[in-house]
Amino acid sequence: MRMTTPSNSKPAGNEPFKITPAERMSRLPTYLFARINSVLYQKRRAGEDVIDLGMGNPSEPPHELVIEKLVEAARNPLNHGYSQSIGILNLRREVAGKYLRKHGVRLDPEKEVVVCLGSKEGFSHMCLALMGPGDTALVPAPYFPAHVFAVALASGNCITLEVADSDKFLANIEYSCKHLHPRPKLLIINYPHNPSGVTVDPQFFVEVVKLAKKYGFMVISDSAYADVAFDGYQPPSFLAAPGAIDVGVEFTTMSKGYNMAGWRVGFACGNQEMLKALATIKAYYDYGMFQAIQIAAIMALRNTEAAVESQAKLYQRRRDVLCEGLRRIGWDPTPPRAGMFVWAKIPEKYLTNMDTLQFAMKLLEEGGVAASPGTGFGPAGEGYLRLALVENENRLRQAVRQIGRCLDADTKGSTATKNVVDDGNAVADSGKSTSAT
Ligand SMILES: Cc1ncc(COP(=O)(O)O)c(C=O)c1O
What we know:
Helix content: 25-40%
Order of helices and strands: HEHHEHEHEHEHEHEEHHHEHEEH
Distance between the termini: 49 Å
Number of domains: 2
Strand order of the largest sheet: 2-8-7-6-5-3-4
CATH superfamily of the largest domain: Type I PLP-dependent aspartate aminotransferase-like (Major domain)
Largest sheet: 7 strands, mixed
Strand content: 5-15%
CATH class of the largest domain: Alpha Beta
Bound molecules: pyridoxal-5'-phosphate
Number of strands: 11
């Protein structure tokens, strides 16, 4: 058989074989967390204790009933074949049931619910199904990086709009629609918002639907933190707004409230045409989720709502401990009413000779605390630090002490503060890694 030389490689010789990734790879923004991750990894390898408040990776396991169901389902030989790419009907029914109970939203589980391998997979493939060269998406700023990466990988452009003030956000959507040609094709919204913790009330979504209908854009609502809310606040569903199902879909996940991040269970619900497009793309890429996981997910949705509520209370207590601690060392964080993060403005005096990334590196290197620099979520995050509530209360108190000491040492002219765990109650490091999650 005659072999041809691949177009991207030189004929055999002494030169190294050249790998040429596709052009779309170069469209991905720089991954700002890489440096932090690498230092964190080195510290861990050197046996140092690092308090990791970087990633929104839950620290508790799923409910025991759910694990038992997974084991039982894994023992059934019938559950080991390829499953349905859009998820088994009983799981889709359970998701529809939760929407009805929680939000009064009636969904057809046959056509209006798709199971995804985590919501990130779902919305990334949804962007691939909806966007192409020349298309523009409006994305909140600061942004959850995957929202921007998903649009970039689909060859679309992103326009970021500041999310802090919801009325201004709505006004900016309208302004963009009036002045951009062609008009934006897609709006991505994310409430409770990661990283800023901004939340909205139901009327906000009513306004979004009105704008979508007026200007003809589709909507993806990412509601990853819908199950983690505090002080009696209930994050509303976009799909509960009248007419929302005509213009958009909503993604939810079992990663956060159910502590099932590694299981990769997410859902897309809403507009049938959009879901059909997602299902078509998914059918080319995956064969669906391991059926035993889907069965255990049904058990979780049906029987562990009380555990989801107590998990949220745990995050609420951690929020209070962290915010109180930060206040004691002179910061002024706004306690979020939902989500897994405190989005704290770094006191300006610390940023006179360094930027936010350098500040986060300093806390890690000298203070032994990993947190996400705000700029990892785009330029709108400059001046902020995102701290995840994924360590226990004692470790959070310890983290604040270490941050305080590290910054104190600086103002007293000392060079570095050694990270020593001096709290007898602090527990062992959990071995997680920091990233933009
Ligand atoms: C805003 C937001 N959306 C989606 C995700 C991804 O969740 P999943 O685990 O369902 O892919 C995350 C994860 O941190 C997130 O913060």
